[in-house]
Amino acid sequence: MKFVTGITETGRLELAELKSGTYFGKEITVHGAVHANRPMGGGLTFLTLRKKDGVLQCVCDGAVDVSGIPEESAVIVTGVLREEERAPGGMEVHVSGIEVLSRPAEPMPVPVNKWKLSLNLDTELGLRPVILRHLKKRSVFQIQAGLGRAFREYLEGQGFTEIHTPKIVHAGAEGGSNIFRLEYFTRKAFLGQSPQFYKQMMVGVYERVFEVAPVFRAEKHSTPRHLNEYTSMDFEMGYISSFYDIIEMESGFLRYAMKLLKKDYAADLQRLGIELPDVEHIPMVSFKEAKELASAKYGRPIRDPYDLEPEEEQNIGRYFKEEYGADFVFVTHYPVKKRPFYAMDDPENPKYTLSFDLLFRGMEVTTGGQRIHDYQQQVEKMLSKGMHPEEFESYLMIHKHGMPPHGGLGIGLERLTMKLCGLDNIRDACLFPRDLSRLEP
Q: Which of 69, 100, 203, 272 counts the highest number of beta carbons within 10 A?
C-alpha cells in the first residue's frame, strides 16, 4: 500500500538553488519554457529557459539538436552547470539532453522574449494571458506579490488576525451610486465596496484584523487611475489612542515592505529600473494646509474646499518632493462632508474628521482614520446624513453592545504597485483589469 507524504521529488532544481554555487561543475536537471531559441551557427544554439523566478541560459552544441523545438515549448533540460559572467545570473547549462513535454499549437502573437513591447494598451490587454510571460511585465506582479506578502507578514508580526469577509452584501459601506446591484435569489444585494462593516465587527472579536481581497466600485469612468474591481489591503485595530496610531502602523508596514523588496526582489527591481522611495521620514500635513501650500506655490486656485482633485494631489506630492525630498505624504483631517458616516468627527473642529489619505508620488493610495465607536453618536451621524439606521441593524449591533476606540485603513494594491513601478496606467498593475469596456480575458 502507498501512503501520501505531501512531498514530490522531481530531482529538478530551481534558480535559487543554482545560484547558491553548490552545483557548479555538476550535472543538473531543470524544467522551464523555451523563452528564446537562437542558432549561432556552427551547430551551436543558445536556449533561454524561462523559469518561475527568472531565466537560465542553456548552451547546445551539435550533439543536441534543438532546431525543431519552438519557443514556448515546455522542456526538461539536463546538463552541466558552469559559471559564465556574461550569462543571466552568471551561469549557464551545457546541455547533454532535452525532453520536450509540450509544444505550442501556434507561434506567439508577439515576441515576448524582446526587452520592450511596442503595443497599445488595448492590444496588450487583449493578449494578457501570453503578454504576462514577458519578463518586465511579469516583474510588475512579482513586486505586487511582494507588497502583499509584506502586508501579511508585518501585520501578523503586530498581532493581527487575517479574516475573510463576504463580497455579496446587504448594503454598501461607502454609500452613493457607485455600487453594483445584483439579484440574490428573491432579494436585492450588492457587491461589496469595502469590507468596512465586517472588519469593524471583527475588532470586537480579535482586536486587530486584516484582509487582502477584491472590492467593487460601479463608477462610470475610464481614467488611468481607476478600476471597477481592485484589490484592497485593509486592516482595522482596536484600543487606539488616536488615529495617529493607524498612520504609524501603515508607516511600519511601508518600512518593512521596502526592506523586503530590496532583499528578496532585487532582480525584479533592477529589471524595472525601480528606485525604492524613502519611507523613514514621511511628512504629515492637514488637508486645509496641504491645499493652501500647493495652491500658493503652483498658482492653482482652490476650486473644491471639501476634497482633493487629482491635479491637487499631484501638486501636493510635487510640493513635498521638492521641499522635503518625500515621495509619500500623509494628508489628515478631511472635511466631514467628504467622509463616510462612520468617520469620527474631530472634537476640536467638527467640520473635519479624524481621518487621512496617504499620497504616493502625487496619487492617493490609502484612505483611513478613526471610526465612531459610540452607539448614540453613530446613530446621530447617520441621521445627519439622511440615512436610516434601521437599515444597518446588524452593523449597529457592535456599537449597541460595546466597542473600543478603533480605526483602520484600506490600501489600493494596484495603485501602490503602479506608482512604485513608475507605470502610467493602473491597468498595467492589474493582472486582468475590469473597467467600463473590459470583461475578458
A: 203
Report residue 107: phi and psi, to 5°. -65, 160
How does DSSP classify residue 335?
B
Q: How far is CA 248 from the centre of its chain?
A: 20
Strand pairing of 229-238 and 406-412?
Answer: antiparallel
Q: How many Å apart are CA 23 and CA 282, to the nearest integer?
A: 45
Q: Give the residue from 89, 80, 93, 105 showing the smallest Cα distance to 53.
A: 89
- Of 411, 410, 381, 384, nearest to 396 (Cα)? 381
Question: Do 427 and 435 contact (CB within 8 A), yes or no?
Answer: yes
The angle formed by the CA atoms of residues 186, 187 and 191, to the nearest 5 degrees, is 130
Q: Which of 100, 53, 107, 109 is nearest to 77 (CA)?
A: 100
Beta-bridge partners for 83: 91
Q: Whole-angstrom Cα distance, residue 321 to residue 316?
A: 9
Q: How far apart are CA 374 and CA 381, in angstroms?
A: 11
- Residue type present at position 273: G
Q: How far apart (Å, rounded) are the C-alpha atoms in residues 208 and 203? A: 6
d(CA 282, CA 66): 54
Type and span of the H or E element at 242? none
Return d(Cα 229, Cα 2) in angstroms, integer: 45
DSSP label of 171 = S
Q: Report the C-alpha gap between 148 and 431 in whole angstroms.
A: 14
The number of angstroms, rounded, from the C-alpha of 213 to the middle of its chain's C-alpha atoms is: 10
Number of residues that this document lists for the chain: 441
Which among 352, 347, 343 has a CA at the least distance from the CA of 407?
343
- C-alpha 231/C-alpha 138 separation (Å) is 18
**Higher confidence at residue 178 or residue 207?**
207
pTM score, whole prediction = 0.94
Q: Tell me the per-residue pLDDT of 347-404, one tens digit each, with 9 for 90 and over.
A: 999 999 999 999 999 999 999 999 999 999 999 999 999 999 998 999 999 999 999 9
State the Cα–Cα distance between residues 415 and 424, nearest whole angstrom.
11
